[in-house]
Amino acid sequence: MLTFIAKLTVKPGCEAEFERIMRAAVPKVREEPGNHAYLFHRSTENPRVYMFYEEYDDQAALDAHRAHLKEMGIDLRGMLEGPPVLEFYERLV
H helices within 31-90, ranges in order? Predict the structure, then answer.
C-alpha cells in the first residue's frame, strides 16, 4: 500500500477555480483501479493551502492516477505557488 499526503498552495485568487476543478475530479479519482482513498482538505489556517490524503495499491496505481488526471485535462501547475509537498507514510495497522 502506498499512502501519502500532498500539500498544495495555490496562488492568490485561484482558490475558487482550484476547488471547482478538484471537487469535480475527486469522485472520478475514487473510481480508479487501485485507489483506496482520495480525500480533499483545505487548511483552517491558510485558505490557499490544500491537502490530499491518498492511498493506492502500489506505484503502478499512482502512475495510472497521474495519467488519469492528464486524460481529464487537469493541469494545476499554473495555479500552484511552488511544487506540491509530498509526505509518504507506512501503514502500521
Answer: 59-71
Strand order in the sheet with 85-89: 35-42, 49-56, 2-9, 85-89
Q: Which residue has the cell 492528464?
A: 70
- Give me the domains of the chain, ranges plus CATH numbers: 2-89 (3.30.70.100)
Residue-wise pLDDT tens for the chain (93 aa)? Answer: 999 999 999 999 999 999 999 999 999 999 999 999 999 999 999 999 999 999 999 999 999 999 999 999 998 999 999 999 999 999 888
